[in-house]
Amino acid sequence: MLALSRKKNEAIVINNNIEVTILEVKGDQVKIGITAPKEVPVYRKEVYMQIQNANQEAVDAGGMEALQNLLKK
To answer: What is the distance between the alpha carbons of residues 4 and 7, in angstroms, rounded to a whole number?
Structure first.
């Protein structure tokens, strides 16, 4: 993990096309802004984990088999 210090209105750039800017610091909360191309999904980690779990549950419930059967038609 790379740890960087930034102040309000300072930013970091990731992969030449994603910019993360510190918008506000209030106590132990930091508000950030993310500028990224539309094709780059950006999620809060807890939402991302819910999506991953739901996808895994679908696969475990036979979702892949149903999808493969659908594609065979």
So the answer is: 10
Q: Which residue has the tokens 């780059």?
A: 40
Higher confidence at residue 22 or residue 64? Answer: 22
**Side-chain half-sphere CA neighbours of 54 within 13 A:** 6
The model's pTM is 0.72
Q: Match 């999904």 to its residue by tokens.
A: 41
Classify 6 as helix, strand or coil.
coil
Integer Cα distance of 18 and 9 in angstroms: 15
CA–CA gap between residue 3 and residue 19 (Å, rounded): 16
Q: What is the pLDDT of residues 1-37, one digit of tens each?
A: 999 999 999 999 999 999 999 999 999 999 999 999 9
